[in-house]
């Protein structure tokens, strides 16, 4: 803790680190952005100029110390600059999820009282205008992309480029004021306010100070030896704490380059072109990449499929040991080397992960099979455990001690303890200041000594000191016979199969477990095309008898695997159905970070849950959905319910649990 503070020295804010980087790294790249197929580079000295011009423009527009400045859009250098410019003038940046509906944005904008809003394009402008009459403190909006906005009322609308140009023109008049404001920033001033994903209710505004962000960035960077030479691809939501730490906190401390892709459609191409050395993705991204690989292999020649299967089997056997520097026979090393030439190397290149020195996944637990797949390729993928309230890092996995079933040891400067009920608690320099305008939640989450309740259940392994997270504390429960119920454990095993996109398991307080399944339309649709099976919708494909058979086979394989774990063997799935729609954040079933909102799903589809338990063979249902343009509608379906074979659990096992 003290070490990180000493390292921070006089750099008590991100603007102070920006000044250091402009002087130290000067012409070295700070940002790259792909525009019209061409990468445009901005150096650290140019970045400082761009941010100071914008900061003066914000002062001219009336931004005061303590104001909240909302920022909405995809990953763009100018929006990252907006966050630092807001900090430079003493304001507080509040990034929002760009795919949020206008209603969701209205809550956050009104809750924080944003006077100023900086957005990417017409889509975000329209959302703000739609709810503008509910934003009592809103005054000005700045847009980055002017396309489609020429005929709008510009009394409160301002072109980003014009605000910057104005700031540049007023540099002589406003430099003294800007310097005064920046020099007045303290280590305990607010750095950023990030809203939680709202898994169980309304999002909460998490207030993080400069101390929280900088201390966490220093400690985590030193843990994994991050340097100025790293390259990252910033594509995850800017409103998510992980992106803020990786793309701003660590980037400004280390001085490495942040690369912004052209768009979602070009992401994989841009990833391959950049070849990041430091890469982060939530489990869903790794799951999707693996699904893509498996689909391609199904479409490949018989020889390529044989070669892939042969060498991947060997990689699973020795790849992780080679990566961790453990003893492996010469013969196995030679065979792995050949596999790298013919299979692993080309595959990593296709995925854009050839140069990854360090990869992280977090946000929720990743399936152990998926995790092992990437590590077997020689990709140094690790799990970290964290929260918005911690400034991300609670635990990390040291090199050579990476496992799929633990999340590592406490990060530098972090203390972790397990409560009497099995809940994980922590305290660290990264612990948030408060929930904005919510003292009750602050007090119930963080005690007077700084210990934060995570809401997760876990335990430390006595022999290794590594933390194991079982599930969300509120989701972990007991079944009717007293056996432990941990749904996420089973759901992650199901999602290893490319055909399964999402799974939701129920069973707390019941005599058996049941599940909802979402098929992966890409993977199952590819199978249908190869087998000349026509379908016109997700719903039709999900109800196809052969798809049902395939999913049943997957469920029964997972049951066999779950049965091997004595503590969780009672979580086998007895009955399941394939949902008639994909779970969607717009319908409130997932958070914007793609986490399952379990309680809402259980309430929304209560008729389906009831049918799974009452022995019904099918159930007719009608569900409200939200279309892309915001309109509401309904879809009706009759869903088949299937029984799955389970492995008998002995009485002794249940009693022991």
Describe this structure in words.
- The protein has 657 residues and is of the alpha/beta class.
- The strands form 8 sheets. A 5-stranded parallel β-sheet has the order 4-3-5-6-7, sandwiched between helices. A 5-stranded mixed β-sheet has the order 25-26-27-29-28, sandwiched between helices. The protein has a 4-stranded mixed β-sheet with strand order 2-1-11-10, with helices on both faces.
- The chain has 23 helices and 29 strands.
- It is globular.
- The longest helix is centred in the middle third of the chain and has 22 residues, at 302-323.
Strand content: 15-25%
Structural class: alpha/beta
Shape: globular
Q: Count the beta strands.
A: 29
Low-confidence stretches: 651-657
CATH class of the largest domain: Alpha Beta
Number of domains: 3
Mean pLDDT: 91
> How far from one another are the termini?
40 Å
Indicate the CATH architecture of the largest domain: 3-Layer(aba) Sandwich
Helix content: 40-55%
Strand adjacency order, main sheet: 4-3-5-6-7
Q: How much is the radius of gyration in Å? A: 25 Å
CATH topology of the largest domain: Rossmann fold
Largest β sheet strand count, sense and barrel closure: 5 strands, parallel
Superfamily (CATH H level) name of the largest domain: ANL, N-terminal domain
């Amino acid at each position: 803790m003290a070490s990180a503070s000493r390292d921070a020295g006089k750099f008590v804010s991100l603007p102070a680190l920006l000044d250091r980087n402009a002087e130290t790294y000067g012409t070295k790249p700070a940002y790259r952005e792909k525009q019209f197929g061409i990468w445009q580079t901005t150096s650290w000295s140019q970045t400082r100029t761009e941010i100071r011009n914008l900061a003066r423009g914000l002062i001219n527009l009336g931004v005061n110390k303590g104001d909240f400045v909302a920022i909405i859009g995809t990953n763009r250098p100018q929006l990252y600059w907006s966050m630092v410019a807001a900090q430079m003038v003493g304001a507080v940046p509040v990034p929002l999820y760009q795919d949020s509906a206008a209603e969701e944005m209205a809550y956050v904008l009104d809750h924080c009282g944003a006077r100023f809003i900086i957005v990417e394009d017409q889509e975000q402008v329209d959302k703000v205008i739609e709810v503008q009459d509910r934003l009592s403190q809103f005054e000005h909006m700045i847009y980055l992309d002017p396309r489609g906005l020429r005929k709008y009322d510009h009394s409160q609308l301002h072109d980003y480029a014009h605000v910057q140009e104005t700031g540049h023109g007023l540099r002589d008049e406003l430099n003294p004021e800007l310097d005064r404001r920046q020099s007045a920033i303290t280590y305990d001033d607010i750095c950023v306010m990030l809203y939680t994903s709202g898994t169980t209710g309304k999002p909460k505004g998490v207030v993080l100070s400069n101390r929280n962000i900088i201390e966490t960035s220093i400690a985590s960077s030193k843990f994994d030896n991050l340097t100025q030479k790293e390259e990252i691809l910033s594509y995850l939501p800017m409103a998510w704490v992980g992106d803020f730490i990786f793309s701003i906190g660590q980037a400004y401390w280390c001085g490495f380059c942040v690369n912004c892709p052209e768009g979602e459609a070009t992401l994989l191409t841009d990833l391959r072109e950049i070849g990041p050395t430091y890469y982060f993705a939530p489990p869903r991204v790794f799951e999707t990449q693996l699904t893509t690989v498996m689909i391609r292999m199904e479409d490949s020649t018989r020889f390529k499929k044989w070669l892939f299967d042969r060498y991947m089997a060997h990689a699973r056997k020795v790849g992780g040991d080679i990566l961790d520097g453990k003893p492996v026979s010469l013969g196995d090393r030679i065979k792995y080397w050949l596999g790298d030439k013919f299979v692993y190397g080309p595959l990593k290149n296709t995925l854009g992960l050839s140069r990854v020195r360090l990869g992280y996944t977090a946000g929720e637990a990743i399936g152990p099979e998926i995790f092992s797949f990437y590590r077997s390729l020689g990709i140094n993928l690790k799990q970290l455990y964290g929260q918005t309230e911690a400034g991300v890092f609670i635990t990390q996995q040291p090199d050579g001690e990476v496992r799929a079933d633990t999340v590592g040891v406490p990060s530098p400067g972090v203390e972790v303890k397990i409560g009497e009920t099995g809940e994980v608690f922590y305290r660290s320099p990264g612990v948030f200041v408060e929930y904005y305008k919510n003292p009750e939640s602050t007090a119930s989450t963080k005690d007077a000594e700084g210990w934060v309740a995570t809401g997760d259940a876990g335990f430390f392994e006595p022999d290794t000191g590594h933390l194991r997270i079982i599930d969300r504390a509120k989701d972990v429960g007991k079944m009717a016979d007293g056996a432990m119920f941990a749904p996420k454990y089973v759901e992650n095993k199901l999602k290893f199969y490319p055909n399964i996109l999402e799974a939701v398991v129920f069973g707390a307080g019941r005599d058996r477990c049941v599940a909802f399944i979402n098929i992966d339309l890409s993977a199952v649709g590819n199978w249908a095309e190869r087998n000349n099976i026509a379908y016109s919708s997700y719903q039709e494909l999900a109800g196809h008898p052969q798809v049902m058979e395939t999913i049943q086979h997957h469920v029964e394989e997972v049951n066999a695997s779950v049965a091997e774990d004595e503590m969780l063997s009672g979580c086998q799935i007895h009955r399941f159905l394939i949902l008639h729609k994909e779970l969607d954040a717009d319908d409130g079933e997932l958070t914007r970070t793609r986490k399952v909102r379990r309680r809402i799903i259980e309430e929304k589809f209560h008729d389906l849950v009831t049918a799974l338990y009452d022995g019904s063979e099918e159930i007719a249902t009608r569900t409200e959905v939200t279309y892309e343009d915001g309109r509401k509608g309904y879809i009706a379906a009759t869903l088949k319910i299937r029984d799955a074979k389970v492995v008998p659990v002995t009485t002794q096992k249940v009693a022991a649990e």
